[in-house]
Amino acid sequence: MSHLQQFFLDSKSLRGLSFSASCGINFPSWLTIPRKLLNSLTLCGSFISLTAWVLTSTVVITCMYFLVCAMGLCGNALVIYVILRYAKMKTVTNIYILNLAVADVLFMLGLPFIAIQLALVHWPFGPVLCRVVMTVDSLNQFTSIFCLMVMSIDRYLAVVHPIKSTKWRKPRMAKTINLAVWGVSLMVNLPIVIYSGVITKHDGCFCTIVWPEPQEAYYTAFMFYTFILGFFLPLMVICLCYLCIIIKVKSSGIRVGSSKRKRSERKVTRMVSIVVAVFVFCWLPFYVFNVTSVTGTISTTPILRSTFAFVVVLGYANSCANPILYAFLSENFKKSFQNVLCLKNVGGLDEVDRSDSRQDKSRMMNDPTETQSTLLNGDLQTSI
Length: 384
Description:
Blueprint: H1 6-9, E1 16-18, E2 32-34, H2 35-40, H3 44-85, H4 92-109, H5 111-120, H6 126-160, H7 171-188, H8 190-195, E3 196-201, E4 204-209, H9 215-256, H10 258-295, H11 302-328, H12 331-340, H13 354-366, H14 368-377, H15 379-382
Antiparallel strand pairs: 1-2, 3-4
Helix pairs in contact: 3-4, 3-5, 3-11, 4-6, 4-7, 4-11, 6-7, 6-9, 9-10, 10-11, 13-14
């Protein structure tokens, strides 16, 4: 989340004061408060309460950052391992999941640096590492969202066009698409690559985006740029894909039997609600803060700063949720995890059932209608 500091470090941000002499109490030199808010505080009790809030929220948020980082790294590393380890896991869909997990792992790696800057209110790692962290962090922020969009398109092709899409839905094509996703993400991320750096402000150094003049115009354009490409457009594509899936399953389910139709509708509805709801829940607050920060509809206060930091944690938490959403809902992933974690010994994961594959191909050649019904009502429809 390489532009999270922009909410506080742009031209509208706080003009801080040190509290070290306030109310006769020695506070940390890094603790700051807006001048207007300080002038409005006439009682030391209110001042101390506000200081306690800032200190407490900083500690809590920093701990949450490290917790999310640990969970995200462990969960996504497990996903990567089982896909690479077991032959039966190397499907088209799982190749997209692998790309998503790699992006999420890299996304998590930048979180400790951001947490340290939050705790110290200072960037101690120098300009080179600042540019690296900012670039990798933002690159994988876009890559993660683009991966979700690609997976939604893949689900659309598998369900709505199961036969026509067979020539496109192959492992080699999936790998090519994954490379294209990284290439597009890199192009979208060029402003971060060019303008990220360290600035000195409020008696400290901060890793952020150093915009050229006019800074306000660049900052505003960047906020809308990331909102449209990093949230709005992917969300529209995801919603459109799953809307088409629901329509297709409902119309096809009537012909293939009531019980299968109900089961298919239930699975698809659950999948759609989880994917869309979690995506919106995790990212919408972050982009709302970004957009409102440039429209001037909110004023920055210490409490709002802490709230925004919680919102940033929520965005990172989406990477923790991805292994659950796209892996634990799959029976093959569950068996693989049980094997790796020594919870249960499940055989057959290293083998590809070639006899079943030959039977499936034969059935597709002899009865395309039956194949389409199977695709619409089987695991291919809802497995992510």
